[in-house]
Every structure is written in structure tokens, then in C-alpha cells.
Amino acid sequence: MPTAEPPPAPAPGDRCPCLSGEVFGACCGRLLSRSALAPTAVQLMRSRYTAFVIGDAGYLLATWHPSTRPAALETDASLRWYRLDIVRTDRGGPLDTSGVVEFVARYRADRDRGELHETSRFTREEGRWYYVDGDV
């Protein structure tokens, strides 16, 4: 059976997959290219969602806190992530050291549809935000 390939990264002027309303190059693209750090926990959450959309496991691992990071990660290219809704945030601003982001991410797999509803915890160390863990 052929293995599905994740979609390519959007062009810099394309709409960002995280649905922030920004173009990819001004939103998650600068974070995924490692040319900038996420200023807030919610921006890191959005960029991690976009990394799932395009199958960038390296970015997901790099933004996962070392205390909870798995040794390896494989994204599932058969899932097509198509919508991210931020439900709420608690802290996670540029001056905070921790934050919480609750979100719903919707996907398709063949003819099935599903969603991931998670409350994620983030920590900021030395100016860099990391995903710690989440409750589904």
C-alpha cells in the first residue's frame, strides 16, 4: 500500500494553515524556518499545528520540552488537518513563564472526520516557549 505524503509547506504569501488570518511567511513560516521564536504560547501552539499539517516532525520535537519530549516522532500523513480553533488561553504572554492553550484541531482521514480537543501546557525558558504536555 502506498504511503501518503504530507502536503508541502505553503508559499510565503499563501494563507497560513493555522487560520490566524496572516500569510504563512509572516505567521508560522518564520517559526518553522527557525528564523524567529514564538513570542507567545498561543503562537507556538499555532506553529505546532502547522507543523502537523505539513508533517514537520523535526519542528515538533524541537519545540517539545526536553522533560516530556519523546525520542522520536512520526506524523501521520494520512490525516489531513484542516481547521484549528483556539478555545481559550490562560497566561502565555511575552512576559509569562507558563501558559495554557485549549484548542480544537479538525482533520480528515479518508472519508472519516475527527477532531482533537486538547488543553496544552507550555513553559518559557530563556526566552523560548516549549510545549510540555496536554489533556485530551
Automatic annotation (TrEMBL):
<feature type="domain" description="YchJ-like middle NTF2-like">
    <location>
        <begin position="40"/>
        <end position="134"/>
    </location>
</feature>
<dbReference type="InterPro" id="IPR032710">
    <property type="entry name" value="NTF2-like_dom_sf"/>
</dbReference>
<dbReference type="InterPro" id="IPR004027">
    <property type="entry name" value="SEC_C_motif"/>
</dbReference>
<dbReference type="Pfam" id="PF17775">
    <property type="entry name" value="YchJ_M-like"/>
</dbReference>
<dbReference type="InterPro" id="IPR048469">
    <property type="entry name" value="YchJ-like_M"/>
</dbReference>
<comment type="similarity">
    <text>Belongs to the UPF0225 family.</text>
</comment>
<dbReference type="InterPro" id="IPR023006">
    <property type="entry name" value="YchJ-like"/>
</dbReference>
<protein>
    <recommendedName>
        <fullName>UPF0225 protein GCM10009747_35400</fullName>
    </recommendedName>
</protein>
<dbReference type="Pfam" id="PF02810">
    <property type="entry name" value="SEC-C"/>
</dbReference>
